[in-house]
């Protein structure tokens, strides 16, 4: 489980096709990670299968490749280790299972902060509510406004500066994980019908 509070960024140094998926290598400055541990890479829960001095390697299954934004070598990614049971929950509950990919349709600086607008992933629109949680590339954000076609988030300077949002441009694609609690509520509601 993750919270969407990005701990660091890393750089994809290799992304190679294998017979049944892709193998990803990520370089990072501080490596408090060991082989076999989970790590969220721009919102995607992966297992660090191999770890070296300043890097780790993970496997992406075909399912993961089909649902996520696959990064090219040179791409900066957000990194977060799983929540420990004695930690505070600063963002929101996230599983690291990406639901969809969205596209940046607008970026505007507003005072010291930023306003980002994204294309609404139609199949997941029912899970979006104003002031509700959404994870974008592993970043816990609050939906500030929405229409049938778009949703927007307001980004504070600290989040902008310490995540990949500072590198985003209109047309870029990000991973989306909708609020898991909304999915559970919908499932329970359906079972009562």
UniProtKB/TrEMBL annotation:
Keywords: Repeat, Riboflavin biosynthesis, Transferase. SUPFAM superfamilies: Riboflavin synthase domain-like. Residues 1-92, 93-189 form the Lumazine-binding domain. It comes from the Archaea. Lumazine-binding repeats lie at residues 1-92, 93-189. GO terms for molecular function: riboflavin synthase activity. It is an enzyme of class 2 (transferase). GO terms for biological process: riboflavin biosynthetic process. InterPro entries: ATP_synth_asu-like_sf, Lumazine-bd, Lumazine-bd_dom, Riboflavin_synthase-like_b-brl. It holds the Pfam family Lum_binding. Pathway: Cofactor biosynthesis; riboflavin biosynthesis; riboflavin from 2-hydroxy-3-oxobutyl phosphate and 5-amino-6-(D-ribitylamino)uracil: step 2/2. Its EC number is 2.5.1.9. Catalyzes the dismutation of two molecules of 6,7-dimethyl-8-ribityllumazine, resulting in the formation of riboflavin and 5-amino-6-(D-ribitylamino)uracil. This is Riboflavin synthase.
């Amino acid at each position: 489980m993750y919270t969407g509070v990005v701990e660091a960024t890393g750089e994809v140094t290799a992304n190679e096709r294998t017979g049944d998926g892709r193998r990803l290598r990520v370089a990072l400055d501080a490596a408090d990670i060991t082989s076999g541990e989970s790590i969220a890479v721009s919102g995607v829960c992966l297992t660090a299968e191999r770890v070296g001095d300043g890097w780790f390697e993970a496997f992406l299954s075909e399912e993961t490749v089909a649902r996520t934004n696959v990064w090219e070598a040179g791409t900066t990614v957000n990194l977060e280790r799983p929540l420990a049971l004695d930690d505070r929950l600063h963002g929101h509950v996230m599983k690291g299972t990406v639901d969809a990919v969205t596209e940046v349709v607008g970026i505007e600086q507003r005072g010291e902060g930023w306003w980002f607008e994204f294309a609404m992933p139609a199949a997941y629109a029912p899970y979006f509510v104003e002031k509700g949680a959404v994870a974008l590339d592993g970043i816990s954000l609050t939906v500030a406004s929405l229409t049938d076609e778009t949703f927007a988030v307001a980004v504070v300077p600290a989040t902008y500066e310490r995540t990949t949002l500072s590198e985003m441009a209109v047309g870029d694609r990000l991973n989306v994980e909708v609020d898991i609690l909304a999915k559970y509520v919908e499932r329970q509601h359906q079972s009562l019908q």
